[in-house]
Amino acid sequence: MNKFKHLQQKAITVRFSIADYLKIEQEAENLGSNLADVMRKAWIAYNSSQDFKTDLKNSENRLISKIFEVCSAVQGLTEQEREEAFHELKIRLNGGSK
Q: Is 0.90 surpassed by the pTM of this model?
């Protein structure tokens, strides 16, 4: 075992209700694993879901931008009208009013 492992890892303590602890323990048993591995996997899954949410939000923003550009072109908006419409769109998407 690496005597410097403590420099690369840090242990934490977490408290759960008895009911949650028993569920985590059961999950570890089902996976043929231990509590620490279950918690590590949960942390990895959480981080992956956050990355997915960020990617989804970025895709949504790009799609809104493209749709706005298409609608502006179809309407034949001038640059000034397009800027005003874009400002209005941002207000509406943010749930605000003028």
A: no
